[in-house]
């Protein structure tokens, strides 16, 4: 990891630790105030706890033009981004996505879509729904490794992260505490529950929290849709296409709508927020990820609406290309932040539990 980023974040954390004005703002400050000396791993842990709500910046009396020149959201955001890149496996791919995220995402989506379009020439003579354009066995052969291999890469990244921050022994209670916090988006509620200041300086807003929740729950519902379809196919011999009131559709359609609304909202807020309070060099890569996830959900909804029409033959390759791109880029895009943040929150719950025993 870059030493200069760690040193600057450490300088600011030490000043914040002496001030303590923002003690109740989010989970960063109780963790910060617990320490007296900040090792590199401590700074990395704090950075991945930070949700970049920016409330501490607008409340701070030591921001520029004060000589302390504090900008803790930016300092932690840059360490956080650097940690994802430093622990990514294979190394180097995350840095490439930061520099050229939009071009990489568009290129991969269109390239994979072309391959899937050409693969339709191998489609079976008989098939219903999407299987009239592409065989089930081909989809399984492509997407199973595309799903499992990025998960393995993320697991290796998280192992490196866990070792660097000091590790520890988690319990189910620690994981459950982190899961509840993530589900509520507790750290985007602000110190008094009024929301955060992400998009409009000192005005509190719940918009970012709600858009994050729509994205999270929409994504989980879409995953549940795919999982339920897999169970129906292999467990009960019920093959697609499925009706509107089947589990895959009851999860997938509202999940896709939520995912569209959430990602569109996050992209809009990102254009309104001050980039200098985040990691400016990663802005393009972050926006590329949000727009890719938006396109995955939108193309899925359009594909469902076009089922049985000529347009389905063109929309299917585009949707599959977007999904495949999303899977393959997961360890190297902003999607990695969810895994790192959950790990950081679980470790924070572990440390709080251990502190209560003492």
TrEMBL record:
Membrane spanning residue stretches: 102-122, 134-156, 214-236, 251-269, 281-304, 310-332
InterPro entries according to UniProt: Citrate_utilization_prot_B (IPR012830), NarG-like_sf (IPR036197)
Keyword Membrane recorded: yes
Keyword line: Membrane, Transmembrane, Transmembrane helix
NCBIfam families with a match to the protein in the record: CitB
Protein name: Tricarballylate utilization 4Fe-4S protein TcuB
Natural source organism: Rhodophyticola porphyridii
Organism classification: Bacteria, Pseudomonadati, Pseudomonadota, Alphaproteobacteria, Rhodobacterales
